[in-house]
Design the sequence.
């Protein structure tokens, strides 16, 4: 397979605009990824009434069931991406999740809808690990958080489109047609990815020697266990996302139940805020991390801790302020929630070997998705069902307030990771010497 060099004028350090074209296409792919994921969020309440589901069912559907498939499938897919052509992995995943989003509209039972969403999760697990690995090979380390932030803008665009398209499509045609409409863009984008993106040479933009190691699962586990900043930041990211995903998944339901807003109005408000606020937060997080990281690399973790620290009070005020001002705090929450992911992903790429970048990204997303999108919406749904007898429609407000404790744990872990980072960066700068057959442990000469 012919590969495109990232030096020789084809990377950002050179004069070619091609890396930026690749990044733009990956942003579109990531936008479709999140649109197809988030169209479900705005449709939870009509699906609940149509299929006669509980809030726990909705939490499983939007949270843990999706996250389990997404996270567990991501590991073998990422190992494939570390060995194969990452562009092809992404295009195949895009085809699968777009088709399964369309098929979600044909479901007439909970089991059928869950099966379709499992298919969406399987396809989407093939997106970010290979995409982040490719971005690392197109952009140098001192611009990588910015590149990941631009890639992360796809979250905000996709969430906005999912909420807006899903909300209005439901008002006009019903929730089944909303799924079908959401699946179409990805099906059109598959050919663009497959035939216009070239596979970059691994590590050449950093002028690193080729990594010829073949890492077994045991090797990978040993490396990860020696990089304490990696584990702490990945779990910390998941805990921050636990609070953020519970909040974002259940906010439309919260607005329907307490303020009796329709899906079109909610989609317009939350979609617009997620789009604008998310882009501001994501870009600010990446740009600031790269700027401050030139002084001290621990800013790649200090900054996420600070943004999560600001997110907690803004969420609380959204839930406990008047209707006239609550969307101001929603906007601030979205900005803060958008700022912490790109710096964490960028720094985890620095502390791992070249041939493990897709896999370690998948591990970050595994922890992120199991703890965040997996557990967050589910725990909130369980709390809703448990508290509705006492609090009535106010139960969802109480549940979302309780889930804020997750972000507090995430902040503590980010700060611990920042403390461990310098030692891990020293380890990452040395070539890995894998143990011989029957050997014990990893040696770093």
Sequence:
């Amino acid at each position: 397979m012919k590969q495109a060099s990232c030096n020789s004028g084809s990377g950002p350090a050179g004069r070619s605009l091609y890396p930026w074209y690749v990044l733009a296409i990956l942003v579109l792919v990531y936008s479709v990824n999140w649109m197809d994921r988030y169209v479900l969020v705005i449709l939870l309440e009509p699906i609940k009434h149509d299929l006669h589901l509980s809030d726990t069912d909705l939490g499983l559907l939007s949270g843990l069931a999706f996250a389990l498939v997404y996270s567990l499938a991501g590991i073998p897919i990422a190992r494939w991406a570390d060995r194969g052509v990452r562009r092809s992995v992404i295009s195949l995943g895009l085809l699968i999740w777009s088709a399964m989003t369309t098929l979600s509209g044909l479901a007439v039972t909970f089991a059928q809808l869950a099966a379709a969403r499992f298919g969406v999760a399987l396809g989407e697990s093939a997106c970010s690990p290979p995409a982040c690995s490719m971005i690392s090979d197109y952009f140098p380390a001192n611009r990588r958080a910015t590149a990941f932030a631009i890639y992360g803008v796809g979250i905000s665009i996709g969430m906005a489109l999912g909420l807006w398209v899903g909300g209005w499509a439901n008002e006009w045609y019903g929730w089944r047609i909303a799924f079908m409409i959401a699946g179409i863009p990805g099906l059109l984008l598959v050919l663009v990815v497959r035939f216009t993106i070239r596979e970059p040479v691994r590590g050449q933009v950093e002028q690193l020697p080729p990594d010829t190691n073949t890492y077994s699962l045991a090797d990978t586990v040993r490396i990860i266990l020696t990089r304490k900043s990696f584990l702490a930041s990945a779990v910390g990211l998941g805990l921050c996302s636990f609070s953020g995903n519970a909040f974002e998944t259940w906010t439309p339901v919260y607005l329907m139940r307490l303020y009796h807003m329709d899906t079109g109005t909610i989609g317009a408000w939350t979609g617009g805020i997620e789009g604008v606020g998310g882009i501001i937060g994501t870009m600010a997080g990446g740009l600031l991390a790269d700027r401050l990281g030139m002084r001290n690399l621990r800013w790649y973790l200090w900054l996420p801790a600070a943004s999560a620290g600001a997110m907690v009070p803004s969420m609380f005020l959204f839930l406990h302020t008047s209707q006239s001002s609550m969307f101001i705090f929603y906007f601030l929450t979205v900005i803060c929630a958008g700022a912490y992911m790109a710096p964490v992903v960028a720094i985890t790429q620095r502390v791992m070997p070249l041939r493990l970048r897709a896999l370690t990204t998948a591990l970050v997303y595994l922890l992120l998705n199991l703890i965040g999108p997996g557990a967050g919406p589910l725990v909130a749904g369980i709390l809703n069902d448990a508290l509705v007898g006492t609090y009535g429609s106010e139960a969802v407000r109480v549940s979302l307030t309780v889930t804020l404790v997750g972000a507090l744990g995430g902040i503590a872990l980010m700060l611990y990771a920042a403390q461990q980072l310098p030692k891990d960066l020293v380890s990452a700068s040395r070539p890995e010497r894998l143990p011989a057959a029957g050997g014990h442990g990893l040696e770093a000469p």
Observations:
- The two ends are 33 Å apart (CA to CA).
